[in-house]
Amino acid sequence: MANRPGTFTGKDDPRRNSGGVPPEVRELRALLVGDAKAIHDALMAAVKEGSVPAIIYAHTQLLGKPKERVEIEGAGLGAGLVGLTREELLQIARLGEK
């Protein structure tokens, strides 16, 4: 049975993006390998100058991206709100506005 268009076999396929990195990015990274120290020095200079995008980028590289979702566990305020009606929740929200 022949593969349908857009499907991959279990073998190596030239259409498959190995590792999730586009070929253009892999080529660019290969070109930059020899300039790693110069790139690092330029990034650190931008950080010392107070460049916000450079600071954010440096932190992201060092610490990883922050979680965009926060999950709360335990018997906090949320546990006490379970079972309340919409009207009761709105009343509580309005109390906080005053």
Task: Furnish the topology, listing elements before pairings.
Elements: H1 23-32, H2 36-48, H3 52-63, H4 77-81, H5 86-97
Explain this structure to me?
The chain has 98 residues and is mainly α. The protein has a domain at 21-66. Helices cover 53% and strands 0% of the residues. The chain has five helices and no strands. The protein has helices at residues 23-32, 36-48, 52-63, 77-81, 86-97. α2 (36-48) packs across α3 (52-63). 0% of the residues are buried.
Percent range of helical residues: 40-55%
Averaging pLDDT over every residue, what do you get? Answer: 78
Span between N and C termini? 69 Å
Please write the string of helix (H) and strand (E) elements: HHHHH
Radius of gyration: 25 Å
Number of discrete helical segments: 5
The total strand number stands at: 0
Global shape? flat
Unreliable spans are none
Major sheet description: none
